[in-house]
């Protein structure tokens, strides 16, 4: 499994950040490659399921996912249930006033450390659902997709921070990627 962890500080109260992140259908507006988020009603379970339709290069692909657990306002856990083996979570931690980063805006009166974690197996993608152009191998696509995933995670977090805070600012991101 590959792992990706992206973390930053958002200058909003923890409960506001949680309420913002729990609304998955709005994620498509932050991502260059996530085209649509479809809510999938599931009468047998209380968890919410989503169809995440991605487009990158000449490919489109839909991943089915679900929220598996929540602990308001601390965590949102999720996993994919079809077309890719992945799981992850959003973690939120309140930052106390005396621990605000020195780069905090003067107007900041609350801060939350937001961390997005994902563990995924790129080889688990359902190849039958991907129509590759002639002479393009699945391995070639995976080799180019990995850096695109990291770049997309960074850009998405930056856009979320801008929307949450109501203004654009340089966002310091910590990004870790481990290939398994």
Care to describe what's here?
This protein is an alpha+beta fold. The chain has a single domain (2-32, 68-178), classed as START domain (Alpha-D-Glucose-1,6-Bisphosphate, Chain A, domain 4), CATH 3.30.530. Helices cover 20% and strands 40% of the residues. It contains 2 helices and 8 strands, in the order βαββββββαβ. It has helices at 14-21, 138-165; strands at residues 2-10, 34-40, 49-56, 59-71, 75-82, 85-95, 111-121, 174-178. Strand 3 and strand 4 (59-71) form a beta hairpin. The N and C termini lie close together (5 Å). The mean pLDDT is 80. Residues 12-129 form the Coenzyme Q-binding protein COQ10 START domain.
Q: State the share of residues found in helices, binned by percent.
A: 10-25%
Number of helices: 2
Q: What structural category arises from helix and sheet content? A: alpha+beta
Main sheet: strands, sense, barrel: 8 strands, antiparallel
Query: What is the CATH fold-level name?
Result: Alpha-D-Glucose-1,6-Bisphosphate, Chain A, domain 4
- Major beta sheet, strand line-up: 2-3-4-5-6-7-1-8
Tell me the strand percentage band: 35-45%
What's the CATH class, please?
Answer: Alpha Beta
Task: Quote the distance from N terminus to C terminus.
Answer: 5 Å
Rg: 17 Å
CATH architecture: 2-Layer Sandwich
The average pLDDT score comes to: 80
Low-confidence spans? none
Organism: Haloquadratum walsbyi (strain DSM 16790 / HBSQ001)
Protein name: START domain protein
InterPro entries: COQ10_START (IPR005031), START-like_dom_sf (IPR023393)
Domain Coenzyme Q-binding protein COQ10 START: 12-129
């Amino acid at each position: 499994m590959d792992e990706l962890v992206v973390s930053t500080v958002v200058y909003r109260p923890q409960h506001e950040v949680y309420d913002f992140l729990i609304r998955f259908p709005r994620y498509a507006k932050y991502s260059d490659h996530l085209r649509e988020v479809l809510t999938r009603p599931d009468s047998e379970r209380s968890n919410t399921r989503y169809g995440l339709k991605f487009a990158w290069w000449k490919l489109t692909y839909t991943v089915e996912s679900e929220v598996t657990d929540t602990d308001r306002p601390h965590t949102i856990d999720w996993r994919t249930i079809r077309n890719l083996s992945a799981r992850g979570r959003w973690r939120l931690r309140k930052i106390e006033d005396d621990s605000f980063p020195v780069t905090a805006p003067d107007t900041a009166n609350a801060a939350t450390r937001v961390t997005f974690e994902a563990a995924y197996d790129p080889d688990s993608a359902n190849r039958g659902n991907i129509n590759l152009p002639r002479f393009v191998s699945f391995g070639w696509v995976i080799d180019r997709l990995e850096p695109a995933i990291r770049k997309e995670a960074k850009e998405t977090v930056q856009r979320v921070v801008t929307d949450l805070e109501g203004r654009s600012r340089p966002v310091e991101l910590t990004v870790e990627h481990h290939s398994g």
